[in-house]
């Protein structure tokens, strides 16, 4: 797997666009259900896809945030954009414009102890094994997604 093309910018942008696309699917499903009385299949499909991609966006935001040395408040604002329809796209543009997505992954251990925290070490370990990183990330998201599906939608079913 060639990971050299998957810079923090490209990974974050892909996740941000996917999040916006799944918001579109969910909103269209809701229009179909509540306005056009087409039933709940669109909401089930759009909602499921959106939920899964939302969780992926959270994971990607955390990984990129650690790599790019974002402040916790910037990570939090980035995560909040995922709950607002289509807000991940302007956030991506803002981050790029302010050089918060510039550069490559930090794959080597630096001499600065600030960059040797748990998150930094974990990120470097995962990047040393990119296929394992993808598999672990997808399995983790799938497990959380499965638990959330079993628990049910917020506010109960409708």
From the N-terminal CA to the C-terminal CA, the straight-line distance is: 43 Å
User: Helix-strand pattern, N to C?
Assistant: HHHHHH
Instruction: Provide the low-confidence segments as ranges.
Output: none
Sheet/helix structural class: mainly alpha
> What is the arithmetic mean of pLDDT?
86
Strand content: under 5%
Q: What's the total count of β strands?
A: 0
This entry's quaternary arrangement is single chain
The helicity comes to 55-70%
Biggest pleated sheet:
none
Rg (CA only): 17 Å
Shape: elongated
- SS element count, helices: 6
Question: How would you explain this protein's 3D organization?
Answer:
With 158 residues, this protein is mostly helical. Helix content is 68%, strand content 0%. It is built from six helices and no strands. The radius of gyration is 17 Å and the shape is elongated. The model has no long low-confidence stretch (mean pLDDT 86).
